[in-house]
Amino acid sequence: MKEIMVKVSRFDPAKDRAPRLESYTVTVNGGARVLHVLHAIHDEIDPTLAYRFCCASGQCGSCAVRVNGEPVLACMEEARTGSVIEPLKLPVKKDLIVDLLPALAALPPIQPKDEPVMPTKQQIDAIKPLRSCIECLACVSVCPAMDVTSFTGPTAMREEMRLALDPRDARNRIPDAIEQGLFTCTSCQACWKACPKDIEIPGKAIEKLRALANRQGRTLPRHQEVAALVRETGRSVTREKPTLLEQVGEVIEPYGPVKATVGFFVGCMYNMRLPQTALDAIEVLRRNGIRIVIPHEQICCGSPLIRTGQLDYLDTLKRRNIEAFVSRNIGTVLTMCAGCGSTLKNDYRTPFKVIDINELLTQYGIEPPAHLPVKATYHDPCHLMRGQGIREQPRKLIRQVVDLVEMPAICCGSGGGVRSGNPEEAAALGSRRGEEIKKTGAEVVITSCPFCEFHIAGHTDKPVKNIATVLLEGYKEKDRKVKSAH
Ligand code: SF4
Ligand code: SF4
Question: Do 358 and 240 share a structural domain?
C-alpha cells in the first residue's frame, strides 16, 4: 500500500464560476492507476466527485482525463503522487465529466449499399488501423484546428476514411470530409500522440482522404499551385534572393579535426527563403568538427505534396533525393528543417541514416558558447517534437547560450498546407501562439523549423531565431571576449 496525494479539478456549473483544484491524499495499492485514486477519493473522502468509468481495462474510453496536462485513460495511467487530474479540454459538465455528445454526433453513419456486399480480407486489413477507436475523444480535446474553425475533428475524419475503405458503404465520403474541414488539419499530429489506441489519424486518415480528394479533382487551388511549382522547379517555394546552394560548394570542411561527415539535406525554405539561417548552421557545424557534403542536385523532399494528398510526382522526388546522397556514399544525412526531417525519416525508405541538427549536435557535444544575458522561449515545431520525438535536445542546446522560459507546446498553424490553403485559420493559430509568447515575457523566440520561424515572425513583435543562429551568436560573443582579453 502507498499514500498518494493528487490535485483534482472540481467544478459544479450550478454553483461555481470556474474550476478549482482540490488536494486529496489517499492510500492505494502499489501499481494503482489514476482511476483507483479517483475511486478512493469518491468512496472515502467525497462521494460528490463526478467522473466516468466503465470497463476499467482500456477498452471503452469513458475514463479519459488529463493528467499533468496530457490526455490519458485513467484506468491505464499509473497513479503518481503530485499529479494534477483535470477533465479533457472539452465543455465540462461536472468535475471530470465532459460533454461528449457534440463530437460523437459529428461521427458519420454508414450509408449501406442496396445490395449486400462482403468485404475481402484485404479490405478488412486496410480498415484495421482505423477501426480500433474507443471514442474517448482525447484526439478531439487536443486538436488546434477545432479551436479556430468549425472542423468536426480527427475522429470524424478517421471515421470518414474508415467508411471510404468499406465496400459496404455507398457514399462518396470526400465532399462530406471537405465540408467538415478536411483541409483545416495542420498535420500537427497531436491527435495521434494523444490516442490511447495509437491511431495514426493524420497519416492514415487525413492524408489518405486528401489523396482521394485529389483523384476527384478537389485539391485546393493554392495546393495545386504548390504542386505545379515543385514539378516545374523542384522547389515548393519561389526564390527571393541568391539560394543557399548558389552560395556554397559541395564539400565544407570543419575548422578543426573531423568528428563526423554528414550529407546536408537543405530543404526548400532554407535554400530559397532563409539561406542565412542555413549558413549560420554551417558555421556552427564547422566549429564543432562536422564535415558537410551538399549534393547540389537535391530537390524538395515532397512534404508539401504528401500533406496535401498530391502523390503523383512523389516517387520521382524520392528517387532523385536518395540518388543524390547515395552516389556520394553518404551514410548519414543531416536535416535542419523539421518538416524535411520528419518526411525523410517517416515517409521515405532511405538506405542512409537521417539525423536532425539538434540530435547531431547533442550526440557529438558542442564547444560551449558564451552565455548571453537573454531571456528566450522555445517553440516546439510539431514535425520535430511529434514527428521525430525530439524535445529535449533543442532545450539542452538553448540552455547553453540563453535563459530558457517554457511555454505550452501548441501548433503555430503553419503546417499541413494550412498557411497556403486556409490563411485565416493559420493567422488565428499564429495569433494564439503570439499570445503565449507574450505571456512568457521572453525577449526572443527560438525554434528549429523554417515554416514555424517564418509564420511565428508574423504574429509576435519579438525576434524569431533558429537555434543555430543563437548558438552562432554565443560563439561570436565568446570570440569577442577572447579578443578583447588579449
Ligand atoms: S493532426 Fe493536428 S490539426 Fe490535424 S486532426 Fe490531428 S490534432 Fe487536429
Ligand atoms: S481516435 Fe483515438 S483518441 Fe480519438 S476517440 Fe478514438 S481512441 Fe480516442
Answer: yes
CATH number for position 125: 1.10.1060.10
Tell me how many helices (H) and strands (E) the chain has: 24, 16
Closest protein CA for atom 8 of ligand 1: 143
Task: Decide: 160 and 177 in contact? Cβ < 8 Å.
Answer: yes
Residue 336 CB burial class (10 angstroms; 0-12, 13-18, ≥19): buried
Q: Is 188 in the pocket of ligand 1 (CB under 6 A)?
A: yes
Please state the domain count of the chain: 4
Atom 8, ligand 2: residue with shortest CA distance: 136
Confirm whether pTM is higher than 0.90: yes
Residue 224: which pLDDT band, with cuts at 50, 70 and 90? very high
| Nearest-atom index, ligand 2, CA of 138 | 3
Tell me the CA–centroid distance for residue 319 and ligand 2, in Å. 35
Complete edge-to-edge strand list for the sheet that includes strand 251-252: 251-252, 290-293, 260-265, 332-335, 353-356
Cβ(189) to ligand 1 under 6 A?
yes
Asked if 83 and 109 sit in the same domain, the reply is no
Confidence tier at 246 by pLDDT (50, 70, 90): very high
